[in-house]
Amino acid sequence: MKFLDEYRDEALAKGIIDEIRRTVTKPWVLMEVCGGQTHSIVKYGIDRLLPSEIELVHGPGCPVCVTSLEMIDKALEIARKPGVIFCSFGDMLRVPGSETDLLILKSRGADVRVVYSPIDCLKIARANPDKKVVFFAIGFETTAPANAMSVWQARQQGIKNFSILVSHVLVPPSIASILQSPLNRVQGFLGPGHVCTVMGYREYEPLAARYKVPIVITGFEPIDILQGTLMTIRQLETGRAEVENQYPRVVSRDGNKVAQDLINKVFEVGDRKWRGVGSIPKSGYKLRYEFRDYDADRIFDTREIDTKEPEICISGLVLRGVKKPHDCPAFGTLCTPEKPLGATMVSAEGACAAYYAYGRHLQKPAATPNKELALAR
Fold first, then answer.
1. Mutual angle of helices 10-23 and 222-238, in 10-degree steps
2. Cβ-Cβ contacts under 8 Å for 367 (sequence gap 6 or more)
3. How far apart, in Å, are the Cα atoms of 158 and each of 155, 196, 261?
4. Does this model's pTM top 0.85?
5. What does the pLDDT look like over 263-288, one tens digit per residue?
6. Beta carbons within 10 angstroms of residue 10's beta carbon
7. Rounded distance, CA 339 to CA 358, Å?
8. What's the CATH code, domain 64-170+255-299?
9. DSSP code at position 33
10. Spatial contact of 105 and 99, defined as CB atoms under 8 Å apart
């Protein structure tokens, strides 16, 4: 397929891997920020193709995975209420809260609906004027424009029975949090291509300068990830710490100004809790005061919720790049996609789900990595 096959070309991939082998002289730990990149790395066995000096660890780049347990429990509380139609993207329905999940609530009679766009909720609200329609607005900066547009249009169209439960998180503060952690091992980042499509990469430049760490904005196909890895290793080996763009066919330095303007009209930056990580200052969006009538958290006055994570689950350490899925004693046994203990096993972009989908739960962690090319056609 044009514009796809060339990014999965086996000969080109081998050439980049050979160049990485010629370039690397010492051990380096890199983190891919986006969950889509994690999925591709595991699917194509990219981490096993790289020289043993290079270790890839998985970051908090899955928005489903990092949505706080408290926010999941708030969503469940709202969805239980009579007269509520609770709308969400499908991958949120099976994310476990403290006691249950949205899919189980739906099976018990709650009006929980899967939508493909927040704009769909406006149609539902118009068709059900006697109901309160709530959309679970999760995600990184990538989904923020559409969620902002739904609120903007609701006000423009005078729709009063629509609101959003906001749980947006921002990538740059999470990178800073990782680098500030005493457990941090990460020396370079493969930056989030989709987020930077919207936001550009100017805001990553102060991070690279302050923490002396290379950040290479990277795409999602095998060639993208291998090129991003090579660019990062070249910086590390030469002592540079800059932001580079491997993904220029999609990403520009300034990003999408129209989308950014819409985000800034509807949202403002605030503190945000991350599942498995904790509270990170100024790491999320919240609705501006003038849009308070569309804030589900305010409308339903959700109570403070005592949350409880399964003690055996190490998803927080996986999200911070400290551990890998196969380090968890529950991985592939007590915790599977059918019966997940943590959010990283639920989402298709979660590291645990990716490892499970491609059979890593069937392999011994200490086994010698197979370095033969695994690129799928």
1. 10
2. none
3. 5, 33, 22
4. yes
5. 999 999 999 998 877 899 999 999 99
6. 11
7. 17
8. 3.40.50.11740
9. -
10. no
Q: Where are the alpha helices (DSSP H) in 157-282?
A: 171-180, 193-199, 205-211, 222-238, 257-266
Q: Please state, in angstroms and rounded to a whole number, the distance separating the CA atoms of residues 134 and 145.
A: 17
CB proximity list for 78: less than 8 A, separation 6 or greater: 84, 86, 134, 165, 296, 300, 302
Contacts of 11 (CB under 8 A, 6+ apart): none
The Cα–Cα gap between 140 and 34 comes to 10
The β-bridge partners of 86 are: 112, 134
Q: Which amino acid is at 313?
A: C
- CB contact at 8 A, 162 and 296: no
pLDDT band at 60 (very low <50, low <70, confident <90, very high): confident
Amino acid letter, 4: L
Task: Encode burial over 31-40: b for 16+ CB neighbours within 10 A, e otherwise.
Answer: bbbbbbbbbb
State the Cα–Cα distance between residues 97 and 69, nearest whole angstrom. Answer: 6
Residues 6+ apart with CB under 8 A from 316: 275, 276, 277, 309
70-79, 197-206, 342-351: least confident range: 342-351
Q: List Cβ<8 Å contacts ≥24 apart for 266-272.
A: 266/148, 266/151, 266/152, 266/291, 267/144, 267/148, 267/166, 267/168, 269/170, 272/68, 272/167, 272/168, 272/169, 272/170
- Any idea what the Cα angle at residue 174 is, between residues 173 and 180, rounded to 5°? 90
DSSP state of 304: P
Rg (CA), the chain: 21
What residue has token string 């947006």?
A: 168
**What angle (nearest 5°) sits at the alpha carbon of residue 276, between those of residues 271 and 282?**
15
Residue 352: its H or E element? helix 351-357
Q: Compute the residue count for the chain.
A: 377
> Which DSSP string corresponds to 59-83?
-S--HHHHB-HHHHHHHHHHHHSTT
Q: Where are the domains of the chain?
A: 64-170+255-299
Q: What is the three-state SS of 114-152?
A: ECCCHHHHHHHHHHCCCCEEEEEEEECCCCHHHHHHHHH
